[in-house]
Structure formats: structure tokens, C-alpha cells
Write a structure and sequence with these properties.
Length: about 190
Amino acid sequence: MGIFGSAAKKQQQAAGLPARLHHTAYVTRDMEATRQFYEDVVGLPLMSTFCEKDELFGAERTYMHTFFGLADGSALAFFQFADPGDQDLFGPKMPFSPFHHIALYVDKKTQDEIEGRLKAAGFKEPEHFVLEHGYCRSVYATDPNGMIVEFCCDDLLAIKDQDKWRSKAHAEMKRWLAGDHTSNNTYRGEHQDA
């Protein structure tokens, strides 16, 4: 589950919080290119395709809705519309920014396999890059829709410290918002001796 949730899982379930992500949805202009990326390169199986027609916002919309499965039962979902006008209305172009992305938790072996398939498929910077965050190592790739997908593998020390980070989360946010922008990421090389 990753450093941002495993320690508190039972507490959150007892508190009546959502159990997990069901799916997150995006619009694609090319469902086959999207399928090739997520199924053939990333390795997420296509779990279902629903061909639908609904009355939505004053007009009848015809679309396809696909779901690509993750190990915990959640999914990444995509819509493609039959009408180009609906496609433009509901699927504006995503800005290229590493600060707009979806991050998927992976173990080291899975991350290495995905990174290998990305390289074999010809992905290079800026469509594919790696960041060492300290608390995790992240492999990034841009999908056919312009969305950045992160494959995140947590650092073992950060996993061990997850209760500490949870206990300080509110105080650290308040400190930063009050103007103290000192880094607290002790897992990066420049802070190893701190």
C-alpha cells in the first residue's frame, strides 16, 4: 500500500473511510493507443469495456468506457466519445507538467520491469524520466493522452518511519504555510547526516 497509508489502514477502515480507490477516470482520443500503453507496456489488464449511451447535460452522449485493473481491485478508466464535439467538451488537452500526474505504487521488481518495457517501447526524456525523491524512487512516463503516470517504489527506511511522518503531518504543513520552507526530507542525500 505504500508509505502514505499502510500503518493507518485498520484505523481508517474503523473510522468509516473509503477502503480503496475504485477507479480514476480520464478521456482519451485514441482508445487503442491507450490500451497498448496500459496493457502492453505497463502491464495492466483490460478488465472491461462498456459501450454506453446516456442523456447527460442536455444531450445524448455515446461513449466507450474501459477499465484497466490494478492488483488491489481498483482501476484506471478511460472514456472515448463517438461525437468529436463531446470529445472536445469532456476531454480537454492535459498540460505537460510533472505536478499533474497519477502515481501507482509498485515494488522494485515491478518498477524495473515497467521501466524496461518503457525503454524497449522507445520512451525517452521527456516522455520517460526517473526521480529519486529519497523517500521513494519514481519512474515517470507520459501516456498517449498526455497524462503523466508515476510508478513509485517506496524506500524501506521511509516505510519504517511512516508513523513518525503521519504524527507530524499537520505540524509540518502549518510550518511550511507559515513561511518556514526548510526541507524536512531526511531521505535525500543532502540531509543524510542531519
